[in-house]
Specification:
Structural class: mainly alpha
Shape: globular
Radius of gyration: 22 Å
Helix content: over 70%
Order of helices and strands: HHHHHHHHHHHHHHHH
Strand content: under 5%
């Protein structure tokens, strides 16, 4: 089978798209369980605590992306020892960072609650939630590494199974701890901790089969080799900076929306769900691009690289176009489903055209994120993200703020366009001079 075919993209991407689509289920179950208790503070506390962890763990997503590119390249080289080295170094890094988060628990918890501004009983409950859930940090970060490694190994099914097990266990334990045993926010937090470790156990079981299919040895001198760790650190540091710049952009949008009033803030939150839905789907295709591009780079195959990018591009653009049409046809209905407030519905409908346009503008940045991750071009990802944030997004906002919320969405659209254009231009340049394959000859 052609390793860069449409069938291969589907084999990797479809399970990952399903995985991404199930991510919101964990939060939905937590919300539903807390929403049936006798005071709104319980629901508010879980929402606050979950928001802190979402922000915290998003900053560590570099563990997933960095592992994917390095593993895919090792797979392309058929270097089974390197596959194991990448995995071991990633898991060691995850364990160290997870333990560090636990040690920093008092600072992180109090700082997060202070930034969100929760008060009174909600703060007390949210603190309890945080103090329990922080113990899942090593498992959560290790799961990032395992998911990234499986994708690099061209395996989309293992991450899906891990997430389904985690979601099922979290749901069952939520119901047991809260509705049967009478626990409150502590029960929801404990359920999440146990679910994350169960997901990790599932990942380790699946790992045995993949390693068995790729026989090799664990070379301790490679795992602890300083040069290899420096490369991993360089990749992950650049990816972290890139992620922080992206997080800044979304926080900035939320903050500016809040300054325009609670109705605008709520309308923007509703519309951002459209962007998240698009991201869940296009991220699955970007993950496939990561795996295929990394494999081609590892093989040193210019033909494979071109095929991987071409096929991933065709899928991504087709799916983006479908979502733009869906938002055009069903956007007003989705808004009605997401909010029953007339004022918020009216405002969201006013700004809906930006969401109809968004998939066609955003698709290029999602695609090239996958290409750059697979090629381990983290520095270039960092630079294009900083350029798009500092030289496009912020100036665009300050020049268009007289348009108020339209100016905010215009700035976001230009930001996504700048990411796609800058990464596309830089990719073409690297492809011409052969640096993507580590050679000066593009053929």
């Amino acid at each position: 089978m052609n390793p860069y075919s449409h069938r291969q993209v589907a084999r990797i991407a479809v399970p990952l798209i399903i995985s991404n689509a199930t991510v919101p289920l964990v939060g939905a179950v937590d919300t539903a369980v807390m929403g049936h208790l006798d005071a709104p503070e319980y629901l508010g506390a879980v929402a606050v605590g979950a928001a802190i962890f979402s922000f915290l763990y998003l900053g560590f997503n570099f563990l997933r992306m960095g592992t994917t590119g390095l593993a895919a390249q090792a797979f392309g080289r058929s270097q089974t020892t390197d596959m194991r080295t990448v995995l071991a170094q990633g898991l060691l890094s995850a364990a160290a960072l997870g333990l560090l988060l636990i040690l920093l628990q008092p600072i992180l918890g109090s700082s997060g609650l202070a930034l969100i501004g929760a008060e009174g009983f909600v703060t007390k409950l949210a603190q309890t939630y945080f103090d329990i859930r922080i113990w899942s940090a090593p498992a959560t970060l290790a799961n990032f590494v395992l998911v990234g490694w499986f994708i690099g190994m061209q395996n989309g099914r293992a991450p899906l199974l891990m997430l389904l097990v985690t979601t099922l266990v979290n749901t069952l334990l939520d119901l047991l701890f809260v509705l049967v045993l009478g626990m409150e926010t502590d029960g929801v937090a404990l359920a999440t901790v146990l679910a994350e470790y169960t997901g990790l156990a599932c990942g380790l079981l699946l790992l045995r089969a993949v390693l068995r299919d790729n026989p090799g040895s664990w070379q301790h001198q490679h795992i602890f080799e300083a040069a290899r760790f420096r490369r991993l650190l360089a990749v992950n540091t650049n990816l972290m900076i890139r992620t922080l710049a992206l997080m800044f952009t979304f926080v900035f949008i939320t903050a500016q929306g809040a300054r325009m009033g609670p109705a605008i803030l709520a309308a923007n939150a509703v519309l951002m769900n459209f962007q998240h839905i698009t991201a869940y789907i296009l991220d699955g295709l970007a993950n496939a691009a990561e795996a295929l591009v990394g494999r081609a780079v590892g093989e040193g195959s210019a033909t494979g690289l071109d095929q991987a990018v071409k096929v991933s591009l065709q899928w991504s653009v087709a799916v983006a176009a479908i979502f733009s049409v869906l938002y055009l046809l069903t956007g007003s209905g989705l808004i009605t489903l997401l909010t029953g407030l007339d004022e918020v519905q009216t405002l969201a409908l006013r700004y809906l055209p930006w969401m109809i346009l968004s998939p066609l503008v955003s698709v290029w940045s999602f695609l090239f994120d996958g290409v750059y991750v697979g090629a381990t071009r983290a520095r270039e990802m960092r630079n294009t993200m900083l350029f798009s944030t500092l030289a496009v997004f912020l100036p665009a906002w300050f020049m268009s703020r007289g348009l108020f919320n339209h100016g905010l969405w215009l700035s976001f659209t230009l930001f996504m366009a700048a990411r796609g254009l800058s990464m596309s231009w830089l990719y073409a340049r690297m492809r011409r001079n052969g640096t993507l394959l580590g050679t000066g000859n593009p053929h």
